[in-house]
Design goal:
Helix content is about 80%, strand content about 0%. The protein is an all-alpha fold and about 140 residues long.
Length: about 140
């Protein structure tokens, strides 16, 4: 009698185990099917994303405007560079001229001092100033 009662106990357990296995199989199948569906959706989305939308004419116009502005800026920068070089040349020439002017001014000051010393020596001398005899000029025939 013990055997029939054991088979009665094992029967509900085996049915429960079978139901649990079927349920697990159904859940796994559903998860796999959903994963496959998501993969297809992702692939479709990637295909659509890979196809670029037609270019917007206003965007193209902005790109052209931007390119022309960049060229203008480059031209202005090149002009600024040339002007900076010119200013540098002018500054160098101005500095050289100022140096020459200072040298000439110093020479004039030295000559002025010599003239003043000659005049004061002449004023201090007791006798009349010697006169120089005029040198006869030669006439040449042409």
């Amino acid at each position: 009698m013990t055997e029939p009662s054991m088979s009665a106990d094992t029967q509900p357990r085996s049915v429960l185990s079978l139901l649990a296995a079927i349920l697990a199989l159904v859940v796994a199948s559903g998860a796999l099917w959903m994963s496959y569906g998501n993969t297809r959706k992702l692939a479709t989305w990637q295909e659509h994303a890979a196809i670029a939308p037609p270019p917007d004419p206003s965007i193209e116009q902005m790109k052209q405007t931007l390119a022309s502005l960049q060229q203008a800026v480059q031209g202005i920068q090149a002009d600024q560079q040339r002007q900076a070089e010119r200013v540098g040349d002018i500054q160098q020439k101005t500095s050289a001229q100022q140096g020459e002017q200072k040298l000439i001014s110093d020479q004039i000051g030295a000559l002025s001092a010599r003239v003043n010393s000659l005049e004061s020596a002449r004023a201090e001398s007791p006798g009349p100033a010697p006169q120089t005899t005029p040198v006869p000029q030669r006439r040449t025939k042409r």
